[in-house]
Design brief:
By secondary structure, this protein is an alpha+beta fold. It is 39% helix and 19% strand. Strand 11 and strand 12 form a beta hairpin. The longest helix has 17 residues. The chain is globular.
């Protein structure tokens, strides 16, 4: 399958499912080839923004400002970046009950980072954003040269949402962030190894992993809300070098084929990469 064929196939998958928009980018470490479709288009980040938050956390650890085993008081009160008024992370909308159950007690920085990624805990995310700081996370993004990621705030700040102040990503931005982690060039080799371990423990597997053989391993982060569904990760297939894949999609609220569409796109990319590489003029 050539790259032009892959492009047509992905567009057909998205159109058939009723997606409003789609962006895909992959980098194959085996053939040293990068390919993309609409890779510079901006999407609401949803929970994929937790990857740059993770980078910010480990940057703070590397600078000695935090320790992985530092204990954090678990609370559920945060301030909107718009007007400074308090808001809470609603337990019923959060994907993780473990962190909510710890309110009033403490958890370690690494435990919070683990829950932020593996079960997409919004409460853990906001606690880490408060500890590290929005400006510090932005500085990490800038230092790592990730122009395809815009970070403004934690999650569930509805006042910011109403003012259209949202975190945004491009497929290339997430692709580049994950490439750095796989190359052990994100923050430091040790930090990259720690982040990979957390990403490998991801529990939501209906996107990229669902389009792959059972033996495939994926270190990834999903993002899902009413109008977008994303997945971005590093795919390991046997002994071959891995590839990095980012799939971003936009939908009408209530669309039902979101995860299946990402899985189908993942399958198409896998079939392309598994075959002998044929580079068409794009």
């Amino acid at each position: 399958m050539g790259l032009n064929t892959l492009r047509r196939q992905i567009l057909a998958i998205a159109e058939e499912a009723g997606a409003k928009d789609v962006a895909v980018a992959f980098y194959d470490f085996d053939h040293r080839v990068e390919w993309s479709l609409h890779a510079e288009r901006w999407f609401h980040a949803a929970s994929t923004i937790k990857v740059p938050v993770l980078l910010g956390v480990y940057d703070a650890i590397e600078r000695g400002e935090l320790e992985p085993h530092s204990r954090v008081h678990v609370r559920n009160r945060f301030l909107s970046i718009i007007d400074g008024k308090p808001f809470r992370v609603e337990g019923g909308r959060d994907a993780n009950s473990v962190v909510h159950a710890a309110i009033g007690r403490t958890m370690t920085v690494r435990e919070l980072a683990f829950h932020m990624i593996t079960t997409s805990s919004n409460l853990a995310t906001n606690l880490l954003v408060d500890i590290v700081g929005v400006d510090a996370i932005r500085q990490t993004i800038d230092r790592l040269r990730l122009p395809g990621i815009e970070f403004h705030r934690g999650v569930e700040d509805m006042t910011a949402w109403e003012h259209d102040v949202n975190n945004r990503v491009t497929a290339r931005g997430l692709l580049t962030a994950l490439r750095l982690i796989e190359e052990r060039a994100a923050i430091s080799e040790a930090a990259s190894e720690e982040m990979l371990e957390i990403l490998h423990a991801q529990e939501f597997r209906s996107g990229i992993p669902a389009g792959l053989p059972d033996a495939a391993r994926v270190a990834h982060k999903t993002g899902d809300m009413s109008t977008v569904a994303h997945d971005a990760g590093i795919v390991y297939l046997g002994d071959r070098p891995p590839y990095v894949l980012a799939v971003l999609t936009e939908w009408e609220p209530g669309a039902s084929r979101r995860s299946a569409t990402i899985a189908s796109i993942s399958r198409s990319v896998y079939e392309h990469i598994s075959a002998e590489l044929t580079v068409d003029a794009d």
